[in-house]
Amino acid sequence: MKTKEKEMVPMRYVLSLILAIFVMCEAKAQNIRAMSDAEQLGMTAGLAMACGADKKLEDFDLISARILANQSPTDEAERREAKVYAQAKWDAMMRQKKGKQSDCKEIIEHFNKLPLFNSIVYSDGSVKLPDGTWSRPLRPIQKR
Fold this sequence. Notes:
- There is one protein chain.
- The protein is mostly helical.
- It has five helices and three strands; from the N terminus they run αααααβββ.
- A hairpin with a 5-residue loop joins strand 1 and strand 2 (about 125-130).
- The longest helix is centred in the first third of the chain and has 33 residues, at about 1-35.
């Protein structure tokens, strides 16, 4: 009987460790979900920029800008979202350049395959997303 008890004690520790890892991963996932669209898009652009994915970055910025603008009820809200996007992009780029937190080859590979690139941006500011849904401006685009 003693051998079974000795085997069970380490198993409790293993189960506790697995549970702790699960809880930490769930907490990280909730933090990512809590980020705004502007922060998520900005982080993605920043990582791609740090890794030299320049070819598609311009398209990504355009699509992201239109989506964020279309979600903003006022010009002021749009400016705030643009600042959040730019700051998240800068922060992610600098973190990646300083610490190489992720493999650039993988980042570029995933970035180039993002479904967002299958979006269509129209001259009225509307964006047809890859899933068939539309992001339409909440207010008319000002002609300059």
